[in-house]
# Entry
Amino acid sequence: MKEFPKVYVEDPPLQRRADQSGIPHTYPGPRPCLFWPAAREWQAADRISRTIVPWLLEWLVFYDIWLRTGEWLGGGVPHAPADGKAD
# Structure
C-alpha cells in the first residue's frame, strides 16, 4: 500500500459548524483532504514544500470561508465529511 502524507491542524483545532454534521473535505481525525489519491495528484517524488504545503494553505482559506458561511467553495471530489471528532 502506498503511503501518502498525513496532515493535521493542531492549533487551533478544526471545528465543525453546529448546523452541519461534519467538516467538508476531511478524513477522520479530522485531517484535511488535500488531494484525491486515485487521480495521482501527488507522487512520492513530489516535494512536500511545493505540493502539500500550498495545498494545505489553500484548504485552510476555504475552511475559514466555510466556517463563516456554511458553503464549501474549495471544489474537489465530493465525499462524506468527517464527523469532526478526534481519532
Observations:
- The chain has one domain: 1-87.
